[in-house]
Amino acid sequence: MELVVFDLDGTLLNSESGISSYTRDTLAMLAERNIAYTVATGRTLHAARDILDGHGFALPQIYKNGAMIWCPKATDYSHTSFLTQREIQHVLEAVMAQDVTPFIFTLAPGNYHAIYHTPLRNDVEKRLSETFAQRSEVDVLPVERMPADADITNISALGKPARIQAIAAMVENEDNLVAYSGDALEGAELSWIDIHHSDASKGNAVEVLKRELGIQRVLCFGDSDNDLSMFALADECYAPDNAKPYVKAAASAVIGHHNEDGIARFLRERFGLPD
Q: pTM of the full predicted structure?
């Protein structure tokens, strides 16, 4: 059995964060041919659910860069990888030492998702809070309201590049932490960082799916550093033309731009689907 794994933003989705009609039809043809496919994304389930609905994503899905695997048939998470209390303290200290607000992504009993934050420091962080609430469709609340029994999947922050780089430097020597960062959509003068437990990688989650689904081969598609862990274990890995240079260098091949249905066009050729 062969499994196709898609990153979403910058890969399967276009610049409007949607699935184009051409890609939609391609996914339908894959389903008709019984070609297995799923997603591995940095998004939460809530931020991806409406986008994926109706496009045949019936297999377990990887969210928060591997921190969670969602099983649509069971309507529950089959695997989770949370930060420990010591790791949480280390990350919060690193973020707040740079005068940057941490956004804490949580999962509480009953599959209740929420994002918590310390006092917002500026208009950029206020807009980010609003964006999280709108995009993720979850509550975004002050940290004082975080329940004691909530588990933390990841901590994110947005700020000036030098401050974000300093945060990354403070956590890079922690054996059980991994940080992804890059230029922010909010402006060229800003960067973002997202910090997880090191077990929470797309690669580790794909390994779980391989084992549990009886997968022999993996084809994956991605554009950023959080995709490299699944590139490392895949039999074939492809980067769209808009991917970061080092992701292109790690790929089996570079294919078309995500805004030009690059992944869908490649899949039609790869599997002999009609154009």
A: 0.90
